[in-house]
Design goal:
The chain is built from 25 helices and 2 strands. With about 450 residues, the protein is mostly helical. A two-stranded antiparallel sheet has the order 1-2.
């Protein structure tokens, strides 16, 4: 359809998709009156199918109740047999709008207007010139788009408690998605948030905040605190402007009952979106920052949002002995730290920090790991002064130079820098504990002769 972007494959119900194709067919052929009539039938049918889906697949009580009420009115007994009461069409719309989260006020009004236009199109309503009502192309497009986006693409669980369904889903999926934030965001966006109205997203965000940072007396909340916090981060990432607007309008709501676990979860959230931190009340900031600096430093390392700027944070990072003596960071912390330096254009600073962190290796395994994660990726970028620092770090730390991998890793260093800085073996030989494969120079000379 060229008039607006629309993808029928986004429609949840296969039957609805079939009916909607009839709407599009009528529209494409210029039969706008027929398109309007079929569109209203499609939206009512879709609402009915969503209720049935919830009743049959999850025994949803709300859907079962509404269906029972509608069915009793839809088919009534008379002396002449079974007859249909057409007012059920309005009832299903009204009940779903009033009792569920599926229909926003705006889309409810669109459906009511569509009902009136459908009546004009379907019944012999003649104007002053005894002509049937005929909707314009623009009117037809507007209704098709509104109904498609506001109803047809929404899954049936919007009718039930979306929050309950979402948190149950998170609980079931946490072992699969808890370690991959991008996969979690993709999953939640596709399954929930892409089709969700803004106010519903905010309502979920607020409830999750209470679950994660305020509620301690519920066993399931405690067990699922981490995955629920990751969902908060996902909402912030996907709907940042919406969340910032909410925080600026209702900052008093966002308190927290602080302990080490919640503090760490807040660090993870604020470190990803520094702008959010300024919306926290001053009193809670003081409490948070007091708790923050009593944490194990491997978590405090991500707290750049409490500093005035990136260089103030960097100064703290490289000068804090406890931070640099830490036993190492997990993968997510390392990735977040590296991203911070990259996002702030601090390439040289990242290289300096990588060398510093490598120099603090506390055993053979940590030296092996830190060389692979921090040193090897920067060998083709480091400056000559940084190379000098690296060589001194290796020469002075026996947990680096005595390890089994030292010779092969040192050879990688030589191979990466000796030509770039026009070095020879004399440079490396001045470091007594720096062992490497001297064949690297022989090979270089052979290459030159060749």
């Amino acid at each position: 359809m060229n008039d607006f972007l629309i993808n029928e494959n986004d429609i949840y119900s296969p039957k609805t998709k079939q009916y909607f194709n009839e709407v599009l067919s009528s529209y494409h052929n210029g039969n706008y009156r027929s398109a309007i009539v079929m569109l209203y039938s499609t939206v009512v049918s879709d609402l009915f199918l969503k209720l049935q889906d919830l009743r049959d697949t999850s025994e949803d009580k709300k859907a079962t109740t509404i269906l029972s009420q509608i069915e009793s009115k839809r088919i009534a007994k008379s002396e002449n047999g079974t007859q249909f009461d057409p007012s059920w069409e309005r009832d299903i719309v009204n009940k779903i709008a009033k009792e569920t989260n599926l229909l926003d006020t705006d889309i409810k009004m669109e459906i009511d207007h569509l009902h009136d236009v459908r009546n004009l199109c379907a019944h012999p309503a003649l104007n002053s010139d005894f002509e049937l009502y005929y909707p314009s192309k623009e009117t037809t497009i507007a209704y098709i788009k509104a109904i498609f986006e506001g109803v047809l693409i929404k899954p049936p669980y919007y009718i039930s408690s979306v929050f309950d369904r979402l948190t149950e889903d998170l609980e079931n999926q946490k072992t699969i998605l808890s370690n991959d934030q991008s996969a979690l965001e993709h999953y939640l966006d596709k399954r929930y948030f892409a089709r969700m109205p803004s106010q519903m997203i905010i309502n979920i965000f607020k409830k999750l905040w209470k679950f994660v940072f305020m509620k301690d007396d519920d066993e399931r909340c405690v067990e699922n605190r981490e995955i629920n916090a990751k969902c908060i981060s996902a909402i912030i990432s996907l709907k940042k402007e919406l969340v910032i607007k909410e925080l600026s309008q209702d900052e008093t709501y966002y308190d927290f009952s602080l302990d080490n676990e919640k503090c760490i979860l807040l660090i993870n959230i604020f470190s990803q979106e520094k702008d959010l931190y300024k919306f926290i009340k001053p009193f809670w900031k003081q409490t948070f920052e007091t708790t923050l600096f009593n944490l194990p430093h491997r978590k405090g390392i991500l707290s750049w949002f409490v500093h005035n700027d990136s260089y103030e944070y960097y100064t703290w990072l490289i000068n804090d002995e406890e931070v640099n003596a830490d036993k190492g960071f997990d993968y997510n912390t390392f990735e977040a730290l590296k991203k911070f330096f990259s996002d702030n254009g601090m390439v040289i600073e990242w290289q300096d920090y990588s060398i510093l962190h490598f120099s603090k290796s506390f055993d053979f395994n940590s030296a092996d790991s830190r060389f692979s994660k921090y040193i090897e990726p920067i060998l083709d970028k480091i400056t000559k002064p940084q190379l000098d620092k690296l060589m001194n770090a290796i020469n002075e730390n026996d947990q680096i130079y005595r390890r089994g991998r030292s010779k092969s890793d040192n050879t990688k260093i030589v191979r990466a820098v000796f030509e770039r800085f026009s070095l020879d073996s004399n440079y490396f030989d001045q470091y007594d504990e720096f062992n490497y494969d001297e064949k690297v120079f022989v090979k270089a000379e052979e290459d030159i002769e060749f």
